[in-house]
């Protein structure tokens, strides 16, 4: 009898980016502007070591960090997280119901649970264009379909376009299959842009007027990685049009701290959805690693996380400037364009008209030949139709490597664009 998988197992395919990374890894000299890794030099070894020492010295009490915890996550940590969300949203402490917040194995797990418990194969999630490509992979893996939210010429969410899309779906009977709208609302991966409060409110009003329920999945993974000041918009949790609507809000405590600890969280306003996610989480792991949570809880309490965030903001700001400045002179004159972001880890480049940047393009090959690697932008679109964008990540490389990577990237761009200009 041949071995056979479930339909979910059958649907899985290796992530395109993992495949591309494997190609790059065959060339150890390659400088990767692709990986979404975080700054290596500043990873908080001393903080973690002092917290672990403290735990080790506490005897029996400390030992509890090595015991299983609860499925929903440590109470103390959930309280700290709820306070953080409330402070960011300038809402009164105690507004959020702590029982609706759970700790996850990174925000990635929370995103997966959210889609898994909401969508059957064939169901639809509306996504920004571009969007977080690993979220598109979750949808693919679960058999859900992404549909792009229309954008304006300024690459912002087009509210009128969204409304017509939904009205049309209502007319054709497809609306019931649209389960949620996914927003990466602060310093997004990959675009670096944020969603204004007016746009969020506009979306909320449109969704509130529909004949069937479309939830919001708000991914705020980069909310705290601003360079100079936080982006002013409140989360959907705190906005009027979403009161009484199903809102799922997720973010991470460790991407801007010690990414390897993988501690994220999610707040969900819809009790049925929340219970389903917690039940699945119970089956998967019955709780995020208690030891990792303990470390993070103490780091938050002692102010280590905020201290780290403060220094990380200048580190990422400086790295962004280094890459941005090294690229802008030579590339802008070749017709490339992008905006310097005000937070996050990415530059989102628009190539000169007609220059393809996808994994099969001569430009991609030219970059590999030069020894630099990027994420082809088409991976960030639901239909891969747009093939002239590039995501560059400046998180992990040091300043000198960033300058060298930029030099190689420019060399590849010149090799491609120069004949066309002549
Ligand atoms: C937009 C976005 N959401 C979620 C995540 C997941 O992060 P983590 O699981 O480390 O919290 C990432 C990681 O890069 C991301 O870019």
Helix-strand sequence: HHEHHHEHEHEHEHEEEHHHEHEEEH
The name of the CATH architecture of the largest domain is 3-Layer(aba) Sandwich
- Computed over alpha carbons, the radius of gyration is 22 Å
What is the residue-mean pLDDT, rounded to a whole number?
Answer: 95
Content of β-strand: 5-15%
Strands ordered across the widest β-sheet? 2-8-7-6-5-3-4
CATH-assigned homologous superfamily of the largest domain:
Type I PLP-dependent aspartate aminotransferase-like (Major domain)
The total count of strands amounts to: 12
Describe the fold and architecture.
This protein has 422 residues and is an alpha/beta fold. It folds into two domains: 7-43 and 307-421, Aspartate Aminotransferase, domain 1, CATH 3.90.1150.10; 48-304, 3-Layer(aba) Sandwich (Aspartate Aminotransferase, domain 2). It contains 14 helices and twelve strands. It has helices at residues 7-11, 16-25, 45-57, 60-63, 75-88, 106-118, 133-142, 159-172, 197-208, 271-284, 290-301, 304-332, 362-370, 399-421, and strands spanning 31-32, 101-104, 124-127, 145-148, 178-184, 215-219, 247-252, 264-268, 346-350, 372-373, 375-376, 389-393. α7 links the parallel β3 and β4 (145-148). The relative contact order is 0.16. Pyridoxal-5'-phosphate binds at residues 36, 106-108, 132, 184, 189, 219, 221, 252, 255, 259, 262, 264. Pyridoxal-5'-phosphate (PLP) is lined by residues 36, 106-108, 132, 184, 189, 219, 221, 252, 255, 259, 262, 264.
How is this structure best summarized?
By secondary structure, the chain is an alpha/beta fold. The chain folds into two domains: 7-43 and 307-421, Aspartate Aminotransferase, domain 1 (Alpha-Beta Complex), CATH 3.90.1150.10; 48-304, Type I PLP-dependent aspartate aminotransferase-like (Major domain) (Aspartate Aminotransferase, domain 2, 3-Layer(aba) Sandwich), CATH 3.40.640. Helix content is 43%, strand content 12%.
């Amino acid at each position: 009898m041949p071995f056979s998988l479930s339909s979910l197992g059958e649907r899985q395919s290796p992530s395109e980016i993992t495949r591309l990374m494997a190609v790059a890894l065959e060339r150890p000299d390659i400088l990767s502007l692709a990986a979404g890794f975080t700054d290596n030099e500043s990873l908080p070894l001393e903080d973690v070591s002092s917290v672990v020492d403290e735990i080790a010295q506490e005897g029996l009490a400390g030992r509890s960090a090595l015991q299983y915890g609860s499925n929903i996550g440590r109470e103390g940590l959930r309280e700290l997280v709820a306070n953080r969300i409330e402070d960011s949203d300038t809402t009164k402490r105690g507004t959020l119901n702590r029982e609706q917040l759970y700790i996850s194995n990174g925000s990635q797990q929370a995103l997966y649970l959210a889609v898994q418990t909401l969508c059957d194969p064939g169901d639809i999630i509306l996504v920004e264009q571009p969007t977080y490509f690993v979220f598109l992979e979750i949808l693919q893996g679960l058999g859900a379909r992404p549909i792009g939210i229309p954008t304006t010429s300024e690459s912002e969410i087009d509210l009128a376009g969204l409304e017509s899309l939904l009205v049309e779906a209502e007319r054709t009977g497809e609306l019931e299959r649209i389960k949620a709208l996914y927003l990466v609302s602060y310093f997004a991966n990959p675009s670096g842009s944020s969603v204004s409060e007016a746009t969020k409110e506009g979306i909320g009003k449109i969704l509130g007027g529909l004949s069937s329920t479309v939830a919001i999945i708000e991914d705020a993974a980069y909310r705290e990685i601003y360079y100079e000041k936080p982006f002013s918009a409140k989360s959907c949790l705190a906005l009027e049009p979403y009161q009484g609507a199903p809102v799922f809000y997720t973010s991470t405590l460790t991407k801007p701290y010690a990414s390897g600890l993988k501690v994220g969280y999610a707040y969900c306003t819809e009790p049925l959805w929340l219970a389903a996610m917690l039940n699945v989480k119970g089956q998967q792991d019955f709780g995020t690693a208690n030891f990792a949570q303990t470390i993070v809880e103490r780091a938050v309490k002692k102010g280590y996380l905020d201290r780290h965030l403060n220094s990380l903001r200048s580190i990422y700001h400086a790295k962004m400037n280094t890459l941005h400045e090294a690229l802008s002179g030579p590339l802008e004159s070749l017709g490339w364009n992008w905006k310097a972001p005000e937070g996050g880890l990415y530059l989102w480049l628009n190539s000169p008209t007609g220059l393809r940047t996808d994994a099969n393009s001569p430009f991609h090959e030219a970059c590999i030949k030069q020894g630099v690697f990027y994420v082809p932008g088409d991976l960030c679109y639901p239909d891969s139709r747009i093939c002239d964008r590039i995501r560059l990540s400046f998180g992990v490389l040091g300043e000198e490597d960033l300058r060298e990577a930029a030099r190689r990237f420019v060399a590849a761009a010149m090799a491609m664009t120069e004949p066309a200009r002549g």
